[in-house]
Specification:
The complex is a heterodimer of chains A (about 400) and B (about 325). Chain A contains 17 helices and 3 strands. The N and C termini of chain A lie far apart (about 70 Å). By secondary structure, chain B is mainly α. In chain B, strand 1 and strand 2 form a beta hairpin. The chains are: A mainly alpha (about 400), B mainly alpha (about 325). At the A-B interface, helix 2, helix 4, helix 6, helix 9 and helix 12 of A face helix 2 of B. Chain A: Belongs to the protein prenyltransferase subunit alpha family.
Chain lengths: ~400, ~325
């Protein structure tokens, strides 16, 4: 009966356990107030054991449960997963239900979304979401495929980079001059579009509920790679929209790593970034560096900030090295090359030394013991870079 | 004035001695109450749990207290037609539990209790064109699975049945600028993933891809003032990272970069003298997972009252010698 009731209360957007340890006669253990589902503690082991045993018995085709209606299978799975989302076999049963048409991808995404409100870092829930989303992406790819274009994930990503989903500032400004000919919007599957963009919200909510949520952030990265093929528009949009988050979560190394991933992906496509969007990655790096050092000044003693500072500086140095390598290639017969090369070398040197002095004169003298330790570590790293 | 730092404080009265017989009693009794709700809830990791318990017992020279026949009989029931092995009876096969199963059978010198040909074929079938491994037929990619696959095949003596070059290429593509590794290309460096990737490269003889100084640096920055190790910046210390981080350091020959004494103190303080076993940190509830890795950490740090542990396979060195696996570490 509880299992059936759970079905009706499925359209909640959040759930949790109510610490009632003894059942009250004739009173339902399920409470729903304004789309929030509460389940009384006492009934959970009973519910779980019942649903779990029935499901596995059916799967093994032994004992009394040789046949179950598909709807009942889905209900039992839901009951098990709401209590214990790490039970990967039950997620697999849901996958089979989707493949049989007994369950839609959307319904399953909804269940996962509900589960994440209580279990925001559940690895199996995110793993299952990737299977569902990949299924949607593959289906969309097949249906959009017309005779002129070959199958490729670039195609599906272009479907998703819809005009309305991305901040207006990052629309391509010149559609004709660049090599990528797939800019013009094709038939966009609106549902898929909405689903994928909603996935970003889900990741963010999970990241809010559990600090340093590796699974939520690595899922977000997967989304960028699998659904958008790391398209520059999306990278730039994400870079812009996540800036507030990381200034409000200065201890969250995952959040910073996400920005590092965005920056690195933009750097790898720096030509497209400057050509199509008239953005210089060096400007992005310098702005990021300034923002980070500001935050360090405001919030001393945060290791995540220092790691981020190190990363950004490392990328800036790397860009200088890239410039140097490019110089070497384009001016191989130029007598002035030695002068230019050494100018680039000294640019790198100067930058590192400037940073060394800055930290030595500022953060190293902080009264915050932890801040001093972090500054010292950073200085050791700079000195190592200088010696290379 | 110091800013708040994520760490724990080891209490004055913290335990300073290794309570081996208490830990042996704890593991010995674990899982005897099969109707316990907690036991039922953790069935999705039963195979892993058995591996943790047995390895811990073997390290303490107490393996014969465990029911070998029952365990082997259980594993036999968990092998599927496909060849893959599940976490428990009636569950689906997965690389994570297949590795645990093979590790257990290797410990017991009973690999032929399962159809190893089919295991090998199933593991081989999970490798993809880019070298990565799926965890099972449903297609999740993670560097943990690269480790599980090569460790499993290595224990079965069939590493050459996969495309080793491609497998290595994929793992190397997951290396980040800090020298560490994440779960997929572009993912954040995580000590657990580092262990899996470093272990994988050790098994395939490709440790030269690693920048040992760079990675060693990141790894020893995991050590906090309490002496404990965390898995990523700004996370709390956890005894299991005494394994993931320490084993990685050992493989790349940078174990001496860690402050041994304070780490030993942290691990010992995480014991529970009433129930036996280790917790993730001092004062918390114990479990077999942290008990194994607490003992493994102490073994790597030179404690002579437990057996030597192999840092790549997380199995007793004597077992590795018995089956003839010897890897070149850095």
């Amino acid at each position: 009966m509880i299992v059936k009731l759970l079905f009706f209360y499925f359209y909640s957007d959040e759930y949790d356990v109510i610490p009632v340890t003894e059942p009250v006669h004739n009173k339902s253990p399920l409470v729903v107030i304004e789309h929030k589902l509460g389940v009384e503690l006492w009934c959970i082991p009973i519910l779980y054991q019942y649903a779990y045993d029935k499901l596995l018995s059916w799967r093994a085709r032994d004992g009394t449960e040789k046949f179950l209606e598909p709807g009942e299978v889905c209900n039992l799975c839901r009951a098990v997963l709401l209590v214990n989302p790490e039970c990967y076999t039950v997620w697999n049963i849901r996958k089979e239900c989707v493949e049989n048409g007994d369950l839609t991808v959307d319904e399953d995404l909804k269940l996962g979304e509900l589960i994440l409100t209580k279990h925001p870092k559940s690895p199996e829930t995110f793993i299952h979401r990737r299977w569902l989303l990949q299924r949607l992406l593959n289906k969309s790819l097949l249906s959009s495929n017309d005779s002129n274009h070959s199958n490729s994930s670039v195609e599906s990503s272009e479907l998703l980079v819809g005009v309305d989903g991305i901040s207006v500032n990052f629309l391509p400004t010149n559609q004709n001059t660049c090599s990528n000919n797939h800019i013009l919007p094709k038939q966009i599957d609106r549902n898929l579009h909405r689903t994928v963009h909603h996935e970003f919200d889900i990741c963010l909510r999970a990241a809010e509920h559990y600090a340093c949520n590796y699974n939520a952030w690595s899922h977000r990265i997967w989304l960028i790679q699998a659904a958008f093929n790391s398209a520059v528009q999306v990278l730039l949009s994400e870079f812009r929209t996540t800036v507030t988050w990381f200034t409000q979560h200065v201890s969250d190394h995952c959040g910073f790593h996400y920005r590092q991933f965005l920056l690195k992906s933009l750097i790898n496509q720096s030509q497209a970034v400057s050509c199509k969007f008239h953005v210089d990655v060096n400007d992005l790096l310098n702005q990021e560096f300034d923002k980070t050092t500001d935050l360090i000044g405001t919030y001393p003693g945060h290791e995540a900030l220092w790691y981020h500072r190190k990363f950004v500086l490392h990328q800036i140095i790397d860009e200088i090295k890239t410039k140097k390598d490019q110089l070497r290639e384009t001016l191989s017969k130029d007598n002035g090359i030695d002068l230019k090369r050494s100018r680039v070398e000294s640019e790198r040197q100067q930058l590192l030394e400037k940073e060394l002095n800055l930290v030595s004169n500022k953060e190293l003298l902080s009264c915050d013991k932890r801040e001093c330790e972090l500054a010292n570590r950073y200085i050791v790293w700079i000195k190592r870079m200088l010696s290379l | 004035m110091a800013s708040q730092m994520k760490d724990v404080e080891i209490p004055e009265k913290a335990l300073k001695e290794l309570l081996l017989s208490k830990h042996a009693d704890y593991i010995g009794a674990y899982g005897t109450k099969k109707d316990d709700y907690e036991y039922v809830m953790t069935e999705y990791l039963r195979m892993n749990g058995i591996y943790w318990g047995l390895t811990a017992m073997d390290l303490m020279n107490q393996l014969d207290r465990m029911n070998k026949e029952e365990v082997i009989g259980f594993i036999k029931q968990c092998q599927h037609e496909s060849g893959g092995i599940a976490c428990s009876v009636g569950h689906d096969p997965h690389l994570l539990c297949t590795l645990s199963a093979i590790q257990i059978l290797t410990l017991y010198d009973a690999q032929d209790a399962v159809n190893t040909e089919k295991v090998i074929e199933w593991v081989r079938s999970l490798q993809q064109d880019n070298g990565c491994f799926y965890g099972d037929k449903w297609g999740e990619v993670d560097t943990r699975f690269s480790f599980c696959a090569v460790a499993c095949l290595s224990l079965l003596g069939k590493l050459d049945c996969i495309n080793i070059d491609k497998a290595v290429e994929f793992v190397v593509s997951c290396m980040n600028y800090d020298g560490g590794f994440g779960c997929r290309p572009g993912s954040e460096t995580h000590a657990g993933q580092v262990y899996c990737c470093v272990g994988m490269l050790a098994i395939t003889g490709c440790l030269h891809y690693i920048d040992a100084d760079l990675l060693g640096w990141w790894l020893c920055e995991r050590q906090l003032p309490s002496g404990g190790l965390n898995g990523r910046p700004e996370k709390l210390p956890d005894v299991c990272y005494s394994w993931w981080v320490l084993a990685s350091l050992k493989i790349i020959d940078r174990l001496h970069w860690i402050d041994k004494d304070s780490l030993i103190a942290f691990i010992l303080a995480s014991q529970d003298d009433e129930t036996g076993g280790f917790a993730d940190r001092p004062g918390d509830m114990v479990d077999p997972f942290h008990t194994l890795f607490g003992l493994c950490g102490l073994s790597l740090l030179g404690n002579k009252s437990v057996k030597a542990i192999n840092p790549v396979f997380c199995m007793p060195e004597e077992t590795m010698q018995r089956i003839g696996i010897q890897l070149d570490l850095l």
